[in-house]
Design a protein that fits this description.
With 317 residues, the chain is of the alpha+beta class. The chain folds into 2 domains: 73 residues, 2-Layer Sandwich (Phosphorylase Kinase, domain 1), CATH 3.30.200.20; 193 residues, Transferase(Phosphotransferase), domain 1 (Orthogonal Bundle), CATH 1.10.510. Helix content is 32%, strand content 17%. The protein has a 5-stranded antiparallel sheet with strand order 1-2-3-5-4, with helices on one face. It has a two-stranded antiparallel sheet with strand order 6-9. Strand 4 and strand 5 form a beta hairpin. The radius of gyration is 21 Å and the shape is globular. 39% of the residues are buried. It holds the Pfam family PK_Tyr_Ser-Thr. This is Protein kinase domain-containing protein. GO terms for molecular function: ATP binding; protein serine/threonine kinase activity.
């Protein structure tokens, strides 16, 4: 697990809706986090361990972009799960710090955009792996993506998908039976069909699209709306997010596809990963040059440079 600050041995490392977490050391060189559950009923302990050792343990814990689980154990009063320690906070904290952006207008803009695309690609890669195993995350949001320090990464961290409390296996038709209550996931990130208690693999894609918008804008989605209005808008399919001006058009187009009201119109994560790779490659070939008509014989003027495109827009899907 992780928190919005660096974890240390024996110190607090964050927490979630069901558990507190503390930093620890697992083995001679592995940093770990201990999630402690204070609900000690037999049913709760069994459900936690069934998920930790059963469905979710098959995710493939050696995946770089999915949180590593190191062990789990139940006790008379406490249940704990030992997980990889992510010591660079959450994606939410990085968004709040202004780490990301979606524009390419200046060198600083493009650096933030590249950081955003790298994190988005890591998240989509983790979801691609989950979906390949028939597992739906069910609650994808910036607070459930942890960042692990990595000196070899240009951003200084790797993004890892975490918190599988609502994860479910998809049925052959990719549909999961309605749960108790109408809402699955977190309201502002949940797909319209999740409002009706139906969870699909494409529901994760919708949530990813909302996250992509948030990483580009730096704002909370639907922050100026009452929750009841958000719920109604999603249920009726009348709610959408307005992209900030200046967001790189291929990124905006991908986000809009991910947030289509019709689940069948959304791309899958194989397509999302491919699109993000294409956008990253294109952004590397973008540079600034001064306008030709602003270049007098005496040298460049103080006119603002323009973007020079070296390759065409990618076909996203």
């Amino acid at each position: 697990t992780g928190g919005d600050g660096a974890g240390s041995s024996g110190g607090a490392a964050g927490g979630g809706a069901f558990a507190a977490a503390a930093g620890a050391v697992h083995g001679p060189a592995t940093s770990a986090s201990l999630a402690i559950f204070d609900r000690s009923t037999i049913d709760f302990r069994n459900s936690v361990l069934s998920q930790a050792e059963g469905d979710v343990s098959s995710i493939g814990w050696d995946m770089q972009d999915v949180l590593l689980r190191l062990g789990a154990e139940t006790g008379e009063y406490l249940t704990h799960i030992i997980m990889e320690l992510c010591d660079a906070g959450t994606l939410q904290s990085a968004i709040s710090r202004g780490t990301f952006g979606g524009s390419k207008e200046t060198s600083e803009d493009r650096a933030k955009c590249r950081s955003m695309l790298k994190a988005a690609r890591e998240i989509s890669s983790g979801l691609q792996h989950l979906h390949s195993l028939g597992i739906i995350h069910g609650d994808l949001k910036p607070g459930n993506v942890l960042l692990k320090k990595d000196a070899s990464a240009k951003t200084g961290f790797i993004a890892k998908v975490s918190d599988f409390g609502l994860a479910r296996r998809s049925a052959p038709d990719e549909r999961v039976a309605a749960q108790s209550g109408p809402l699955l996931g977190t309201l502002v990130y949940a797909a319209p069909e999740a409002m009706r208690g139906s969870l699909l693999r494409s529901s994760d894609v919708y949530s990813f699209g909302v996250m992509l918008w948030q990483m580009c804008s730096g704002r909370q989605p639907f922050a100026d709306m009452h929750p009841a209005a958000v719920l109604y808008g999603k249920q009726t399919g009348s709610l959408s997010l307005a992209w900030p001006p200046g967001v790189y058009s291929p990124i905006r187009k991908l986000g809009e596809l991910c947030m289509e009201v019709d689940p069948s119109a959304r791309p899958n994560f194989d397509q999302v990963c491919k699109a993000l790779q294409q956008i990253e490659a294109r952004l590397k070939r973008v540079r600034l040059i001064p306008p030709a008509d602003a270049m007098p014989a005496g040298g460049p003027s103080g006119a603002r440079p323009v973007i020079y495109e070296l390759m065409p827009d990618p076909e996203l899907i």
